[in-house]
Amino acid sequence: MALGFVRPARQSDAAEIARVQLATWRTAYRRLLPRHILEEIDEDFLRERWLEAIVAPPSERHRVLVAIEQAAQEYLVGFLASEPAEEDHGVAAITELLVEPRWGRRGHGSRLLAASVDLWRADGFTAAGAWAFDQDIATQKFLTSAGWAPDGSTRALDVDDLLVPQNHLHVSLEQIPETDGETGTLDD
């Protein structure tokens, strides 16, 4: 298990979050989304959106957490963003959960998820949900190994006239054991 921790994102993290997002999308989604779409994503645009999410979130229940790998120095290696679900404010919605592929399988995703669950509970959420690309088996496997399950809801994103199907997964926060500060128990 890697040495690492999770903390709230800071203003100075915005550029690195954008870099991790773009690098991960270009690796993980290269067979799901059109190549030119992935190549045209502007990292500066992403950085500005993450900066806004960090310094001026719409509510206290909108959160961006980052995973830090500790080695000779610290590296921001992943992040989880969440907000109240549009349709039910008792449900937390993951809007993005990414760990840069080269840092995968070191517990960072599990630490991000466990820290988020603790915060969601403190915020009064009773359940959580996330959309995952139908062909993104890694994300679906990760979430189901953590107790999440598909709820049968589907949607398709229109990406440059290509419909990309997604499945919705959910979990009751009352069914996930308390972590008591122990995070990273799942092997991701």
Automatic annotation (TrEMBL):
Ranges where the N-acetyltransferase domain occurs: 4-178
Gene3D superfamilies: 3.40.630.30
Assigned keywords, A-Z: Acyltransferase, Transferase
InterPro entries noted in UniProt: Acyl_CoA_acyltransferase (IPR016181), Bact_Acetyltransf (IPR050832), GNAT_dom (IPR000182)
Coiled coil: none
Molecular function terms, GO-annotated: acyltransferase activity, transferring groups other than amino-acyl groups
Protein name as it appears in the record: N-acetyltransferase
